[in-house]
Description:
Elements: H1 2-22, E1 31-32, H2 34-43, H3 46-65, E2 72-78, E3 93-102, H4 107-173, H5 179-214, E4 220-221, H6 223-227, H7 244-265, E5 271-280, E6 285-293, H8 303-349, H9 351-368, H10 374-408, H11 415-418
Parallel strand pairs: 1-4
Antiparallel strand pairs: 2-3, 3-5, 5-6
Helix pairs in contact: 2-4, 3-4, 4-5, 4-7, 4-10, 7-8, 8-9, 8-10, 9-10
Amino acid sequence: MHRIIAAIMVAGVCASSLQAQTRPPVSAEPVLTLAEALARAGASSPFQDAASAGVRAAEAQRRVAALRPNPSIIAEAENVAGTGIYRGLRSSETTVGVAMPLERGGKRGARIALAEAQIGRASLQADIARADLRLRVTQTYLVAVAAQRRIGVARDQLGIATEVLRAASVRVRAGRASPLEEQRADVARVAAYGAVERAERSAAVASTNLARLLGIPVGMLDEAWFQRVDAIRQSDASGTASTLTAAAARADLDTTTAQVRLAQSQRVPDLTLSASARRLEQTNDVAAVFGVSIPLTVFNGGRSAVAVADAQRDQSDALRRVALLDAEQGIADAQADAANAATTARNAAGPALDAAKEAARIARIGYREGKFGQLDLLDAERTLLDTRTAAIDALAAYHDAQARLERLTTAAPSPKDTDR
Length: 420
């Protein structure tokens, strides 16, 4: 019986041990990646809501443009309130009818063409809003990651400054150094403490901005992504014509071209046809009245409106060429910025950082042993701090340039993707 109880206890202990070994470890705070941040921002954003509202407004304007002019009701009373036989309503003639305006010159088709061009521009604006939101989220994310990295650097420097102060105090008490060294080390510690406060405050603001943009609380961010330097994507000038920037400029040109057509159609005067029934009071008879009216283009023939539309079209064409030049220059600048920042980041985060760390380590050991002076130690620590800060700045500049390059080279949707 005792053996059975012992076996059961051993089995229970083994099962508990096995369960403890197979149970997954408690996970730390989840890391918010850039891809998750982009997906979260794309799910609900006032920027995209505004662009979607613009598309709906353009579609509604298309329906308005397709409507024909409304008819008018005509009501007239003649031969009333006069003298003699025309006194009062004894000889009145009452006319009631309908007037129908007839558009000429293709005005309705021109309005529809303009509305469809505006729909295409609004759809492109929605795509531009998504690309701009992606750029904004990426830049806000990398600022927050860089702020987190700077907190770590500032805290490390505070720890180093505290150790240097402790070593200086030991040297001063042992009579191997002047009290000035202890005061100088204390000043360095106070400066390091202030740097920690500034870094924490900046990180809190950056995290709050990212949380406000995403609509969720923000914790740890993906520092591995921030530290990774990938190859720079190359883009030639020939690919600029297919970007969102070029497509938006073409859409603006199409809109102004449609406005020229509409202005030209306005030069053709419209007809107004009317059909009425007139009642004669004296004979109590009813007669039909037909009419037609057409405006005389004496003072305003529409040439000035056409000239304005032509000038606006020429302006849009010139702005389109300017947009292409700016896009090509922006792509070249972003590529150069990304390449330069990548080179700086590799050097600052690689051999230069290793050398600065080793120099600072040797200086600390030598200072404790009395082989190096305090100024040598402070100079080595300052070099290490500058190198680590330069690495963070270079990585932030690299990711910012990559984000700008991605935005500038974002391809416009094909026409079949924008058809509705």
